[in-house]
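Report of the visiting student (M.T.), summer placement. My assignment was to run the structure pipeline on a short list of targets and document each run. The first record concerns peptidoglycan glycosyltransferase.
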Amino acid sequence: MKNRILRVISHKWSRLILLWPALVFLSSFLVFLLFDRVFPFPVPEVSWSKVVYASDSSLLHAFLSKDDKWRMPVRLDEITPGLEKAFIFKEDRWFYYHPGVNPFSVCRAVFNNIAKGRRTSGASTITMQVVRLLDPAPRTYKAKIREMFRSLQLEWHLDKKEILQLYINLLPYGGNIEGVKAASLHYFDEEPRELSLAQIAMLTVIPNNPNALRPDENAELLRLKRDFWLNKMGRKALFSPAVIADALNEPISFQRYPIVRKAPHLSYRMKNINAESEIFTTINPSIQHRVEALSTAYVRRLRSFQIGNLAVIVVNNRTMEVEAYLGSAGFDEDAWQGQVDGVQALRSPGSALKPALYAMAFDQGLITPKMVVTDVPQNFAGYRPENYDETWRGKITVEQALAQSLNLPAVDLLEKVGTEHFASGLASVGFRWIGSNRSKLGLSMVLGGCGTTLEELTALYAAFANKGVWHSLKFVKSSPEARNDTICSPGAAYLITEILTRLRRPDLPNQYKDAADLPEIAWKTGTSYGRRDGWAIGYNQNFTIGVWTGNFPGNGVPELNGADFAVPLLFSIFNAIQPAQKPGWFVPPPDLDYRLVCSESGLPPDTFCHHQVMDYFIPGVSPAMRCNHLQKHYVNESGTISYCRSCLPEKGYREAWHPYYPPGLIAWYNEMQIPYQTLPPHNPHCPSVKFSGAPLITSLTDGAEYLIIKGRKQQLQLACNAENGVARIYWYLNDKLLRAALPGEKVFFTPEEGRYKISCSDNLGRNSDIWIKVTYI
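After the run finished, the structure tokens were exported:
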């Protein structure tokens, strides 16, 4: 009985002994979970260097961290098998098998330290080293126990790859260099994925004594340490003998390389607006390099004319990604203000906004390409624009006016479209300065009287390449879908493209008149007032490229213009980045159609229109009124007197067709002594008096104040525009006749101080008045 009791007791104790390890493990695990919740691992925020990459993940630029360290994060895909094997072999061969603490290493370290009476081994795993790098503490036994617990926590919350990544990113490499990436770039000028085995071995060694083993400080000692570990790797067959042999024979670099600084203006811009430590831009390294090379060579020519700088932006029309970004010709050129970002600088656009105006006018049904307009002097309430070449063309088609970038037709068109409508349209597609100042802008805005940037203008022209749909530019791969809006219809965008593709135009540089390598693009130039800015923006189906030339301080140069100084670089860049096969060209969209129009007016022909041409139009939108370039009048048999219906005799008259000329065109014909067919004088005995078509006073502005220097006999000029058929003009000052004159004749008078009513009447009895004030100073 006694023996039986003993056997039962013995059996129960044996079962408890077998369960003891499991009970210990479970209780320890529960205690760990409790401590992990009560004392969570306070992983500090690591201050990383901001690193800017190109679209192919190659490095563009890097910046010091907030604590002035070169600490660049290595991504998991950059940790090559060789890099991983080398670090694990040297630092922690059981890394993938222990829970953060290696108990065998701990026991061995304790035994060695007791046996030798001093600390000879710390038994640190890679995880424990990460804890020490994240949360440094004095090297004591108490700190070691805390370090072990934190290592278990780290293993509980992160996987092995993430821990290895942290370790590789935080290792010290001397001075202010931390992490494998910063070390490989500074010491070898290579990305981590491009490192050789010899370089990897050096990177495993340097953290043991970072300042003493730097390649630029003690290369020979580093070589000995490197070879020692390479031989150990060879003996363990970690790599093939041939690879080990090549690594042992590889020389050591003795210099410290600077971090690359490509696309610096974009890099600084992205650094300031992105919170992430890694920024993947849309820059195409190949295109960026070509743009930089061409611009560096080209700016030498500009500087011989005292034109100090340039800026370039290249946009992929299909993705709206910015593939090249050059803020200035040289970021480090302090003498030329190279750190100014010309892509974002606010400048006057000159004539570069005209295509947007014409596109809006096409959509409003105001014009078609072949419609005839006038290019003659005109007074817009005191604003008298002139053409760039200071000459006038008289009658000209809309497409010629835009292709030749004439100023007066554009101002006249803007008055019809409306400055508020035009400014609002531009504001909706990203023109920030115009949007915030739209209420202050006048007719001069279409000639450059406003502020824009190269970025805004390039996005605008990319909209013409995208059938009138504007998209915001993309600078970062991870940015959300580009914002979009509509600047014009597909038909209007196509008409603008066709006009801007013409080669018979003044902004084609002389050296390209017969050039075989002229790119097939649509382009427009702009030159700001005072010749401070020269612009050229061009596009095809693949790319839109914007070029600015000028001086950042804003000083003008007499020779500067967009045609001679921006267009050559624009053409060179297109030829350099365009694929071997020519891109397809734009095709007319469904909302466009053809029609016959009279060549004299560009309007649908009437029965008297004998010369007709084909013209594009937007059905249901474009003007549909019949041609009126000839008007029917009644004249006597000899053609010396004209009649109206009020004075038409019963017999002795006939019908005659006479050209219709706007008053401004008649005045210009008279001034330039260009002959034109005039209407005979009206019947002097006509009982009717016309009140429509009164002369338009053009020399003085209604309601204006004119300052006259006292003591000088200064004169004011009187001039007007009168309709065809007017034979005589009568000028009145305060209702007193001054003198009679011919319609195109200029009359002068010497004013006294005070208010004046100025009246102008023609021989048909039509009259117009204005009021001015004269003040002596």
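The two ends are 139 Å apart (CA to CA). The chain has a mean pLDDT of 86. I thank the supervising group for their guidance throughout the placement.
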